[in-house]
Amino acid sequence: MKGIFSVLVENKEGVLSAISGLFARRGYNIDSLAVGETDDRSVSSMTIVSTGDQRTIDQIEKQLNKKVDVIKVRRLDEAKSISLEMMLVKVSCTPANRSSLIELCQITGAKIMKVSPKFLLLEYHAEPEGVEDFIDLIKSYGILDIQRTGTISLSKT
Amino acid sequence: MTGAEAMVKCLEAEGITRVFGYPGVAIAPFYEGLYNSSIEHVLVRQEQNAGHAASGYARLSRKPAVCCVTSGPGATNLITALATCYADSIPIIAISGQVSSELLGRDVFQEADMTGATRSFVKHSYLVKDPDDLPRIFKEAFYIASTGRKGPVLIDVPIDVQNKKLSREFKYPDEVNMRGYKPEVKVNLQQIKKVVAALDKAKKPLICAGGGVILGDGEEHIRAFCEKFNIPVVSTMMGIGVMPKKHPLYFGMLGNNGKPYANKAVGRSDLLIIVGARLADRAIPKPENLVRRVGVIHIDIDTAEIGKNMGPTIPLVGDVKDIFEALMEQEIPVADQSWIDELEEVKHSTVDPRVFSDKLVNPNLLVQMLSEKMDDNAVYVADVGQNQLWSADNYVMKNGRFMTTGGMGTMGYSIPAAMGAKMYDPSVQAVAVCGDGSFQMSMNELATIRVNQVPVKVLVMKNRFLGLVREYQYNTYDSHYSGVRLYDWPRYDKIAEAYEMPFFSCSHDADLEKTLDEFLACPDACLMVCDVDSEDRVK
Ligand SMILES: Cc1ncc(C[n+]2csc(CCOP(=O)(O)OP(=O)(O)O)c2C)c(N)n1
To answer: What is the count of structural domains for chain B?
Structure first.
């Protein structure tokens, strides 16, 4: 199963490595990890997505809670939260297939950030599965470079 | 006031009167601070033993104890002791010197990334950047080490921070304020009701007491509870000491190396009440299987322990004393005497299939006789190996303490830990019992014992082998004894002579009583060696 954790931590050096070290040491997966400051500069917010069986996901929550620098852990229910991921991608294209790629962008809502003779640089954001679907769609053109932010999530309530 | 002076003041504010350590340049300002204070510094002979000594001190005092080391190799030498305290949940504060802040990360002489290296072996750690933070950090460190699930906390202090002056007047905080650490848990009355309901239905309840009971000062509570409701008790290795050996409701240590009848008791019970034990692989090899057969109540201060090694249970999180105070007030049926009778029956019908050599000293007899003869409130520190398992199996707990490292199993623990305990309370008899291998891992501390006149008794079970590994090779590798021979050196009498300590030795059961009497009567630190047959086994 998938576990989405929204974690508030002290914004101090060493905290990110303490958290990632916890996952490494206990053999938990990190599918994605996104970190940023909050409105309170002394607090950072992380969204961590992991997969494992029920016991592992429960343990992750408890082990995160044990860390002194972890202020709050919330486990997000996929159905009751909004998750988004953003990516930047360079898609190769030729004069012949450029217009079909542009059309694809219009349909999917991907934004064209730069046009060059050999590629388009696109920005796309969606819920994580949508990002995967979009990648499938553009694969046939040839992906030259790609950067993904990892999932960020907030509960709807 | 400099940072170093502030560090000393913080220790004084915490009531620390003694620290165990080993200096170097990177911690020298702090040592200058110690020089000018009333805190006694005990110079050990290797940093790991400063940590073990602090562990023994903390276990007996039931409060955090302090050790201090220099940067680089001094700090890395300490890591094994930190890992040992972490595995055994022992509260110590480790202070390490560090290279100057502006040199951090440049791999200069004697720099080791201590906070990074110890991340998975400490409960929490600090790299101090500003001397003004020291009072807060020390206050937090002592609080973190000694509350919730206890454990070691590291404070790494660069030399420039020790030398720099505080920009404001020193004030030790009265309280801590950490957003991310709130160890107090209120007993959940809803859960207490579930526990009571389970006990109501149970015909064969059994308490399994772990080291957490002792760490939570809950021995009296468990004894009172089991007596009130007539519930039998088994313990893990770390839980030895929760119950006196001869208590009618006590059925020994469970696990791989425990009493077969304790394991049978677990198998036959219909409700297992685990208190302060993580039930690692050595205690119950396949805990998942248990859950299917019996109901399980798991009581622990650490939520993460519940369900970590074992499937669904009735969890009850909190302080052992609070929980058992609450449970004492509940209406719980007194368990039927027939269950106790059944366990008695099992106990008496279980025969020990092992045969011990009669040529040399029988280790079972040795431990029984020694612990029977020791003072009521004595401290017995068992090392690691066959000797540890024989100790755990035969130790006669009266009203004292049995200490060992059940979680990490670090050879060489017993001598420094017994020294630490004895230094905390000189009125208590303290005996370290070790193998000839483990003795040699920390025999250098005989100097510390000698110099500081700490009358610790050290008893070596000499079988000329790394016995437990040899036994494993006997069982698993067709007696291919690889790398386990210790032979006959050192000459123990000469070792004792070198440290000017009284020496006792015994090679036959017939002489055992007399020699033990002399050994225990000796007012000074002393060494005793018992020859044990290398063929004697724990299983
Ligand atoms: C520091 C350390 N190194 C290695 C081991 C592995 N080990 C466990 S028991 C043991 C043998 C201990 O030998 P000895 O102290 O002579 O005790 P005996 O088993 O003979 O009683 C060893 C090597 C360990 N537990 N700790």
So the answer is: 3
The 10s digit of each residue's pLDDT in A25-83 is 899 999 999 999 999 999 999 999 999 999 899 999 999 999 999 999 999 998 999 99
pLDDT band with cut points at 50, 70 and 90 for residue B278: confident
- Measured distance between the N- and C-terminal CA atoms of chain B, rounded to whole angstroms: 60
- Torsion of the alpha carbons at A59, A64, A68 and A74, rounded to the nearest 10: -120
Same domain, yes or no: B312 and B385: no
Give the domain range for residue A57: 2-76
Main-chain phi, psi angles of A9, to 5 degrees:
-130, 160
B517's tokens: 């009497």
- A94 and A51 both lie in a single domain: no
Chain B 285-324, CB below 8 Å of chain A: which residues? Answer: 302-304, 307-308, 311
Distance from CA of B96 to the nearest CA of A (A): 18
Ligand 1 neighbourhood includes B420 CB (under 6 angstroms): no
Question: CATH code at B73?
Answer: 3.40.50.970
B153 and B23: one domain?
yes
Q: Is the dihedral of CA A89, A93, A95, A99 positive or negative?
A: negative
Nearest CA to ligand 1 atom 16: B437
> pLDDT of B288-301, one tens digit each?
666 656 789 999 99
The answer on A59 and A113 residing in a single domain is no
Q: What is the mean pLDDT of chain B?
A: 95
Question: Which CATH number fits the domain that encloses residue B224?
Answer: 3.40.50.1220
Rounded to whole angstroms, how far apart are CA atoms B145 and B148? 8
- Is there a single domain that holds both residue B9 and residue B46? yes
pTM confidence score: 0.93
Report pLDDT for B354. 87
In terms of CA atoms, which chain A residue is nearest residue B144?
A68
| C-alpha to C-alpha distance for B61 and B59, rounded to whole angstroms | 6
pLDDT recorded at residue B309: 74
pLDDT for position B409: 97
The last residue of one of the domains, among B295, B324, B349, is B349
